[in-house]
Amino acid sequence: MLASQTLGGPSRCGRVLGPSLDKIVKNVAWRKHSHLVAACKSALNKLETLADSSDPVSCSPLFGFSLSDAELVLQPLLMALDSGSAKVVEPALDCLFRLFSFGLIRCEIDVTTASIVFRIVESACKCSGLGDEAIELAVLKLLLSAVRSPCTLIRGDFLLNIVRTCYNVYLGGFNGTNQICAKAVLAQMVVIIFARVEEDSMLVDFKTVSVSKLLEFTDRNLNEGSSIHFVQNFISEVVEVKVDPDSKPFALSLASTNTSQVEISQGNQADGEMDGAGSGGTTTKIREDGFLLFKNLCKLSMKFSAQDQNDDEILLRGKILSLELLKVIIDDAGSVWRNNERFHSAIKQYLCLSLLKNSALSVMTIFQILCSIFKSLLTKFRAGLKAEIGIFFPMLILRVLENILQPSFLQKMTVLNFLEKISQDSQAIMDIFVNYDCDVDAPNLFERTINGLLKTALGPPPGSTTTLSSSQDATFRLESVNCLVKVIESMGTWMDQQLKIRDSSPLKGSFSDSSSVSHMASIGEEGILVDAELNTEANSEISDAALLEQRRAYKLELQKGVSLFNRKPSKGIEYLISTKKVGDSPEAVAAFLKNTVGLNEAMIGDYLGDREEFPLKTMHAYVDSFNFEGRAFGEAIRYFLSGFRLPGEAQKIDRIMEKFAERFCKCNPESFSSADTAYVLAYSVILLNTDAHSSMVKEKMTKADFIRNNRGINDGKDLPEEYLVAIYDQIVKNEIRMSSDSSAPQSKNNNSLNKLLGLDGILNLVWKQTEEKPVGANGLLVKHIQEQFKAKSGKSESVYYAVADTAILRFMMEVCWGPMLAAFSMTLDQCDDRAATFHCLQGFRHAVHVTAVTGMQTQRDAFVTTVAKFTYLHCAADMKQKNVDAVKAIMSIAIEDGNYLQDAWEHILTCLSRFEHLQLLGEGVPSDSSFFTAQTLETEEKTTTGYPSLKKKGTLQNPAMAAAVRGGSYDSSTRGVNNTSGLVTQEQMTNFISNLNLLDQIGSFELNHIFAHSQRLNSEAIVAFVKALCKVSMSELQSPTDPRVFSLTKIVEVAHYNMSRIRLVWSRIWSVLSDFFVNVGLSENLSVEIFVMDSLRQLAMKFLEREELANYNFQNEFLRPFVIIMQNSNSAEIRELIVRCISQMVLSRVNNVKSGWKSVFMVFTAAAADERKNIVLLAFETMEKIVREYFPYITETEAVNFTDCVKCLITFTNSKFNSDVSLNAIAFLRFCAVKLADGGLESIDKPKDSAVSAECDNNLDGQKSTHDHDHTSFWIPLLTGLSSLTSDPRSAIRKSSLEVLFNILKDHGHIFSPEFWESILNSIVFPMFSFMHDRSSQPEGGNNNTWDSETCMVAVECLVDLFISFFDLMRSQLPLMVSIFGGFIRSPGQSPGSTGVTALIRLTSELGDRLTEDEWGDIFIALKDVAFSSLSGFLKLAKTMDSIDVLVEVSRDSEFYSDNELTNDDSEDDNLQTAAYVVSRMKSHITTQLLILQVITDLCRNHRKSMSPKNMETVLDVYSLVSSHSHNLNSDTTLQFKLQKACSSLDISEPPTVHFENESFQRYLNFLIDSISNNPSLSQKTNLEIRFVSVCKKILETYLNCSGSLSQSLSRSDNKPLTVVHWILPLSSVKREELAARTPLIVLTLQAISSLEGESFRKYVSEIFPLLVDLVRSEHSSREVQRALSSMFESRIGPLLIGGCVVEL
Questions:
Q1: 851: number of CA atoms within 13 Å, CB side?
Q2: How far apart are alpha carbons 10 and 159 in whole angstroms?
């Protein structure tokens, strides 16, 4: 043991080499390998003398040794490896393994150096062919350790040689374990190599390969029990060796050198499967070697067996291994593959070509590996492989996915697994849609994938033939649904990442920051960052949603146009031109037909052959776009027909060929003599092509036939025979294939995509391969695809777009929501598998989330409605576990996406309502409807306290239960309405109970949590939630068979939960709730109304606990439902309940009531006008308490509440049930006025300023002025209300209101401004008397009917007192006051007139000295106006008597009246009634006129000093007007006659017209006499004597006219001759009576004339004397006239005559 420890000397290398060399010596055959023995001993001896050098030589392959020493000690190992003996080779390999593992071999190994280490490793590679199991493993271990060592850089072809050695072990290994080991070693090598390439360093961290994962696709059959475990340990043993710290500097030096124009000679490539290193640009050795290895692996994967040989199984395994290694490389690929142009190009140039070639193979393992590689490419390199992915995705994925009827099970499962993995990468899903479905020149990968998954989920169409078994079909359906779920989940995840919904407050809409948007790094299966640097690609850019929307819309419109063209070409072109997709010129359309992919070639030919003008021009432009210069005729026609298919109609073909011939001859003018030749020859070529290649033609055209057919076509001459023969041979050997001929029939979707890609022929050839052969036509088609790659990469459209705007999700959902809804719905409906239903419900949840957040209302509602329907809560008897899961899903939706559900809340809440209903039925709780039915029998209510629990009992036949068991449609508001026939059976009940037990999985907590969670909803969501809840509750309550209150109770809870929200949000919530409570509160079900009002009361009580600041109005809004229901409810019980609720709330929360007072008073106002006495009294009781005890609270925050309080009290005053209520209300109004006058509202209307208050309290005149015009708004309603009460029909109320009104004005009028006083008088006081002074607006008796004489007297007295008290403020209203009194005066009846007279007299007497001359003038003018208005009105009335002639006729001919037997009774009755009315009005009119004269007389007598000439004229006008009117009235004999007859017929007294005339003239005369005698100066100024004489003459003439003694000379009015009177007839008794009535006036007149002064008498006696003479000879009824006349003659005329005679003498 000690000897072995000292073998090799003191050096580190010696300690490794010594034991191994000693073992070789022991194991070798000395005679056969004597040189080996000698070399070993020599090396051992040398090792004993060598020690580790302190300065190791860098060029030495062994650490611590010189180059010569290293070669000496390593030579035995080389010889041992070349010996071919397993016993000798094994220790040599083990020694080398340890040297590499410990980092003792430090060098660069390359074929160009041929160093000792190179030769040793090369020999070791050859040892793998010894056929020994252990040796194979040792070689693999050695090679892996060599690659693993950071101190050994294996270069170029030698690296390929090592890989080739491992390949050979894998392909021809001793056993399965060794083959697995070789595969694992290769995989670990490429992991190490490309990890170093990634970091460009020898010192890197790398992962250990997973052996079991390597066997994912193939070689599982090689597993021999514990092979996988053995190989995993084998790899770990090599890989996990720790690196010697001393070796790091050397390792770093190996990677520091670059290689410029590195040229590594190609090694021995006997098999030709790997290329050596070629020339490259400046790069590092590590990356150069990695690139070389990658390129050769790609080429090895593309190696095919010769086409004329059978497939080689070993070659196939090598191909598969190459692909697996490429998969390992791509799976671990990092940023260097994206950022390094050389490596990125290697993927395009080599890997994509390998995928293309191998995609033709039918080997399932290869297909699986290709899909796996493609997944990595799509995940990591999609930004740089946009064009390639656009081709490979349809080729590998969509073609398999869309094969529904006869797919390969494993192949399609591979595709579905691929899609499932890709779908988990949210950014990849978004990028696919953005860069392909939104790109005009790219296929709709996302849309086709979704549609393919939908078709797979739905399965083969009914009636179709398929190769799938039922289990396979079920597996496909489940996996496809799972893929769809993953897709929608990824969309939601991406959206959440962008909006950061989970981490912060939700954001509305979407955002995109083009300056800082970067992709979210997604985590792949292996836990590595995937595509984290997409945005750093040179050809990627950020695209916002607007641009993408335009691109998407453009593509959709273009596809629509292409699709329309493929059905009707002309319609398609018209659409494309109208949508600006194609220009309107023939050249533009021709370019579109020539260059646009996806067009049907047959339709192109059909359109080009059309004879219409525009298509014909387009065909000419199309043909002219070809350049046939230098092309042979056959080649030209083949080129020409490559873009379309000739139509079937001969005329169309003729037009096209004619134009082709012209164009060909124009491009090749020397080819034919004329275009006719080309035209005929073109037809011949078409016919030959059809004849030669059509299976329908049995006898083919020969060459001679073709030549003969074309004789003489060149202007009568023949074309050269060799020319025609060449054309013939060319056509027969190579058919002219038009595009539509070169592919097999395709489905519409596939065909359009393939045409869009230009892959029709390629894909068909690829997928028609049934053997492992290269793509058809060798590399021709592959080259074509590569050309497409290059062409697409050069287009601007190939730019890769990255998007961060969530608006793109709307476009995606428009594509996928329909298929997803169909797939999830059909699967959920048809499948009961728990996994399938789980996936579907998850899909629904994610779909709702995406559509809800993005605001797609229609789609969101569709998903939510579908889930709601699948709950089967509307027909619980058919419920299954999946339906219960649907209930859970819809609850999860409510919690997770409640902020975005909006109108969809209704469906969710409907489900919750139905769920709760079923729960109650299951527990045996009585239905709500039992509480809403009329309570008619108390005994029944006591005996039926509840339903037995359904889960414990059998059937229970009650309406609610039976309806639930029978079920109904989802949309029906009530269950079982349409299916009410008969009772449910026991079996139905049993199933129903069983299904109710399923619902026990969901507890009440989950149900209630949704409503409690409402407080977390945002402001928009909570409003939508409340709206939906109200709608559901309304549906519950309005159910005709089973009304329920579940949602109503939840409304109260939700309102309670959300009451703490900001007022702006809460006001919106309450706006909804308010309308709901109003609608339900006005329903026809009394019990429901009571329940609603109680719920509203609870909320109000809770809300009133919150303080409200001033100037807010929310309490008022909150209580508004009470007001509306109170005003509109027909139920007395509800109205009474509202009054009690409001009373309770106010009295218990009076401290917190602010703006709510308005609603409180509105409720009490409505109650005051109620028809029920108890409601009125109840409301007034509360109102009384509020006013008495809590009045300060009313105006605490808002003074406007005072007005509402006043209005309420005024309404109570109108109560018809109890006068005490009205009187008390009036008293409270007086109380309110006192509070208002005392400044009770000042604290909230104006700031408390002591200076302002002092100024107001100390006015100069001792009065207070109003603080602000705002107080007007408080006084006016109060005073107006009292004013309106003055017309109350109840006398006590009228008197009380009048007294209170005028007392308020008198007590507090001193604080009113003149302007306010004017407003009060004009709007409140005077309108009360409008019936007196405004006859034009008030009919007679309109308002006066409610005022008796006592009321009038009180009102006028109060008005006079008020006017006198505030005369200085009210004096401007004096004319109106007089007109009011005048109105009383001219009112019919004795009492109003006397009241008016008294009031006017009192007013003038009290104010006499204070009235100015003008004011007196206003009084007299007012009285004049009264007289005139009364006069004019009466005259209009009197004219109605003109049309009454019957009475006159009857009086003249009584016999005629009797003969006609009263034939005109009706008309005469009408005449009598009219006459009676006129008589009545005349009497009133006379009284009024006399009262006016009395008032004027009294005023003039009492205030004689105040009379001015102007006022005197006014007074005289009044006297003159009245007296003249009285005379005229009495002089109208016709009117007098009619009235006399009418009074006689009606047995009523006649109007005192004579008295009226006598009285008016008497007062007029007395006024003149008084004025002349007592006020001479005024008399002279106004010429009263003249008026006096005129009046006297009028009186005398009237008397004489009555007596018939007026001389003709005085009475005639013309120049007719006088009539000689022979005798005078005696007067009739009537005339005597009239003269008797006129006697006092005539006596007074004579006396007045006699009283004139001498000069005045002498002046006017000549005018009077003739009348006196007539008076002497007239007949009198009394001697007083004669005495008065005698006295005048004796005392005045006699002396005047005597005096005159004396003068004459």
A1: 29
A2: 33
d(CA 380, CA 372): 12
Of 1122, 1136, 1143, the closest CA to residue 1185 belongs to 1143
Taking CA atoms, 1506 is separated from 1375, 1494, 1587, in Å, by 17, 18, 21
C-alpha 1518/C-alpha 1524 separation (Å) is: 10
Helix, coil or strand: residue 105: strand
Rounded-to-integer distance, Cα 619 and Cα 626, Å: 12
The end-to-end CA distance of the chain, in Å, is 209
1085 CB contacts (<8 Å, ≥6 apart)?
Answer: 932, 1037, 1043
Find out whether 1490 and 1396 touch, Cβ atoms under 8 Å: no
Question: 3-state class of 109 per DSSP?
Answer: strand
Q: Among 1624, 1613, 1640, 1496, which Cα is nearest to 1555's?
A: 1640
The two tokens of residue 1624 are 């005078």
Catalytic residue annotation: 649
- As a whole number of angstroms, the distance between CA 853 and CA 6 comes to 78
**133-148 and 227-239 helices, crossing angle to 10°:** 40
Pairing label, strands 800-802, 283-284: unpaired
Which tokens in the block code for residue 109?
Answer: 């190994």
Helix (H, G, I), strand (E, B) or coil at 553: helix
Q: Show the tokens assigned to 542.
A: 């950020």
Region 1331-1341: mean pLDDT is 45
Helical segments of 1553-1693, H only: 1553-1574, 1576-1582, 1584-1603, 1608-1611, 1629-1650, 1654-1672, 1679-1688
667 φ, ψ to 5°? -75, -30
SS3 1167: helix
SS3 content of the chain, % helix, strand, coil (to 5): 70, 0, 30
Q: Which two tokens stand for residue 320?
A: 């598969």
What pLDDT score was predicted for residue 449? 92
CB atoms within 10 A of CB 799: 16
For residue 846, pLDDT beyond 90: yes
For helices 721-733 and 675-693, angle between their N-to-C axes, nearest 10 degrees: 40
The Cβ-side half-sphere exposure at 1210, using a 13 Å CA radius, reads: 20
Over the stretch 878-900, which tens digit does the pLDDT of each residue have?
Answer: 788 888 888 889 889 999 888 99
Q: Give the separation between CA 489 and CA 1542, rounded to whole angstroms.
A: 105
Q: Which two tokens stand for residue 1004?
A: 């009440």
Taking only the tens place, the pLDDT of each residue in 591-636 is: 888 888 778 888 888 888 888 888 888 888 888 888 888 888 888 8
**pLDDT more than 70, % of the chain:** 78
